[in-house]
């Protein structure tokens, strides 16, 4: 496993709760969580556009016509994630939100891998199930849904 890739993934993971907290704060200071999410996407779009242009890409507009409709769904999923995180982080807290998101990501990933959705199939095995259950248990220990709110 590539150590640089692992470190980058961990760093990005550490930034996600900060992003949610920043967006929630922006929403409180402006026009709500949807506006804050929109602003986040606008700034992110400008950053990605600059980054893309700096790589001097070859752009062939006709290639876009060959892209299947579902390939654009990533933007919808990203928007739902950012808006939902912006809305939920003040209610759940950063740790609970991220634990639940990670548990959901792992459940979804195991299912997608098992059925080979958009990539090579990686069947579920006993070790993956144990790992999945451990992550879900860890998320429950952080979220503590059995305790009353604020407890």
UniProtKB/TrEMBL annotation:
PANTHER family: INNER MEMBRANE PROTEIN YDCZ. The chain crosses the membrane at residues 34-55, 67-88, 94-115, 127-146. Keywords: Membrane, Transmembrane, Transmembrane helix. The lineage of its organism: Bacteria, Pseudomonadati, Pseudomonadota, Gammaproteobacteria, Lysobacterales. InterPro entries: YdcZ (IPR006750). Pfam families: DMT_YdcZ (PF04657). It comes from Pseudoxanthomonas japonensis. This is Transporter family-2 protein.
